[in-house]
Design brief:
The chain is of the alpha+beta class. The radius of gyration is 41 Å and the shape is elongated.
């Protein structure tokens, strides 16, 4: 500029995205620019190239109304989404949560790549902030609409176990939607600590539809609901307080041991009912698979729990042995008394002779 240098900042080169000035210019190129600012104190001149054309955002509100279908090119990927160039200078963001109805997208690179041409729907437009929110999944039917219509509460479904977590098993349905069998809905009778005790990844399973939340896109399934609840009548009728039960140790915890009884129901022998010395440890006394005999001290239908006691069972055995001893001792005393009397009678008879 007549021997004076001006700065054309990268943000003033184009209304669109520019990664480096070399994408637009070579050294020695002649360019026509606008003077944006002149600082007399520092002698700096700020220049602009994009200002020589109209701002594309000025007509965005009217051109990209909410619900409009658009096509664009993927120009950038971030952890939270993909930027789509709709026209030079106008980009929209497809957030990762708006990429798929059925899959949790952890990173947009699993769905799109830079340079891809994609179709999307306009979700929101904010010309003031120069932001357009786009959705890719909105260009396809929502499978949750089909699921809600196809699967009534109580319907039996079949699918494959896709993943296991600490709290449940995710089962894939035909429509590409995952349903969750929560750990609390896996067994009426067993204390399940982890879903891997029942399921494996890839395993085919049946389940019952318990709940559908279309808004939160959640499908709750039940495995134990495939059968009737044995706690309604079967278990309370079979196991009563005071009965003696025989079972095998199925789990050992810090607070006690679980015993699997006949029919698959589990009872708990709390550490306080194990009858051990204070110094003794449960894992030293009991091993998985050990057969134990205990007394039923509580049957709780509401909590679905059976409490067992080794201590009470041992006390009952000790008391029974004592009673048997006393009963036997009394009979022995009576026998000895009769023998003494008979001996005396014989002695008297011999004296009289």
């Amino acid at each position: 500029l007549g021997g004076i240098d001006g700065l054309l900042h990268i943000t003033d080169m184009s209304w669109g995205r520019v990664g480096h000035p070399s994408e637009m210019f070579n050294i020695g190129d002649k360019v026509e620019v606008s003077v944006l600012k002149y600082d007399r104190e520092t002698g700096r001149i700020s220049l602009g190239l994009k200002q020589k054309s109209a701002d594309p955002w000025s007509g965005v509100a009217g051109k990209y109304t909410i619900g409009t279908r658009v096509r664009g090119r993927v120009v950038s990927l971030t952890d939270y989404g993909a930027f789509i160039e709709l026209e030079p200078g106008v980009e929209g963001l497809v957030h990762v949560s708006e990429m798929s109805w059925t899959h949790e997208v952890r990173h947009p690179s699993r769905v799109v790549s830079i340079g891809d041409q994609v179709e999307a729907a306009v979700l929101n437009v904010d010309p003031g902030s120069r932001k357009i929110s786009l959705g890719m999944k909105q260009t396809a039917p929502n499978p949750w609409d089909m699921v809600e219509g196809k699967y009534a509460i109580g319907t039996r479904i079949e699918g494959k176990v896709k993943s296991l977590t600490d709290f449940g098993a995710f089962v894939g349905l035909e429509e590409g939607i995952d349903g969750l069998i929560h750990i609390s809905d896996m067994s009426w009778t067993k204390h399940i600590k982890h879903p891997s005790e029942l399921f494996k990844k890839g395993q085919k399973v049946e389940a019952v539809v318990l709940r559908i939340d279309k808004e939160k896109e959640r499908l709750s399934l039940g495995y134990k609901q495939l059968g009737s609840d044995p706690w309604d009548a079967e278990i309370p009728n079979k196991y009563g307080v005071g009965d003696v039960a025989v079972g095998k140790v199925s789990k050992i915890a810090d607070f006690g041991i679980f015993v699997e009884l006949d029919g698959g129901v589990e009872g708990l022998i709390h550490i306080s009912e194990a009858g051990l010395d204070q110094q003794a440890k449960l894992e030293e006394k009991f091993k998985l698979g050990d057969e134990v005999t205990a007394k039923i001290i509580k049957v709780d239908r509401e909590e679905r729990k059976i409490a067992l006691s080794l201590r009470d069972h041992q006390s009952d055995n000790d008391r029974r042995q004592v009673d048997e001893y006393h009963s036997t001792q009394g009979t022995l005393d009576q026998s000895l008394g009769r023998a003494v009397k008979q001996s005396r009678k014989r002695s008297q008879a011999e004296d009289e002779k």
